[in-house]
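Materials and Methods. Structural model of indole-3-pyruvate monooxygenase. The 348-residue sequence of indole-3-pyruvate monooxygenase from Pisum sativum was retrieved and submitted for structure prediction as follows.
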Amino acid sequence: MDYCIRELEGKQAHDPLFMKKMNNHKSPSSPSSTDPHRRVFVNGPVIVGAGPSGLAAAACLKQKNIPSIILERSNCIASLWQLKTYDRLRLHLPKQFCELPFMEFPSNFPTYPSKQQFIKYLENYAETFHIRPKFNETVKNAEFDSKIGCWKLKCQSSFKGDVTTEYVCRWLIVATGENAEAVVPDIEGADEFEGVIRHTSLYKSGEEFRGKRVLVVGCGNSGMEVCLDLCNHDATPSLVVRDSVHVLPREMLGKSTFGLSMWLLKWFPLRLVDRFLLLVSWLLLGDTSQLGLDRPTLGPLQLKNLTGKTPVLDVGTLAKIKAGHIKAKHKEVKTSYSGICRWKIREF
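The predicted structure was written out as tokens:
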């Protein structure tokens, strides 16, 4: 692969037509000593995002002797993990399913590494493969220029003030993640609410809510674990369930639910594996609909494949709901009078 790339680059370097296109392309905006805009030609792919996927892509390219650069809008690698996650977060899957290419987790790490341990692993990964992202570089626009056969990325540097850099490359790898941006709905009456409204990306610990009543909207993995964390800090959380959800135990029959599912799928059809997961979940967790958590019609794996909706892996929240420490409320109708989240609810 590297031989082919070098041969292609060598031909382009001595191709008068290609060089003419490049010169004509950059002549109108050639940077001067006083021009805050500059252009950088990259000999290899540009990777956008220095999270786990971006680091893994860079490491795989290095193994093939293919140079690359990573552009990261934040000031650190894995910014989502470092800046936008709560303190008690752990990997929900066993570490062997979360390791990056060519480097295992340390043997002394637990089965489910903590947030701090995972960040340390990623930092060691970047150091091991000599990955040096360009931080504080926000990609504002990326488009393919068919005239020169290259991508053009316009970046704004938050560290260098108004300096804009245009990166030109033949290959573009987008590794920005699916949870990079917080989705905050417009809620009628939010301006009149006297309490704190906080997205989970800004939530760190239940300590600041000790002794308070807290409404958590959404019963995904984050919502369920935030409720558990609030309980552990003597807060009184209520959980708004907006839709049906599959809740599975994190482990089944002494093995991780995820690992067991992947093994079963090698031998059995997906629907049969779904039935097995639901049967064991019912035996271990009981009927979750009695707690206000109705299950979808489709099985957990089939639903994940069709919609991308991930089942919730229980880490102790259901026990708190059963004990009455967390009130699960199902949203039915939104009312129009003032105040945040005034719902007509069915309480369980």
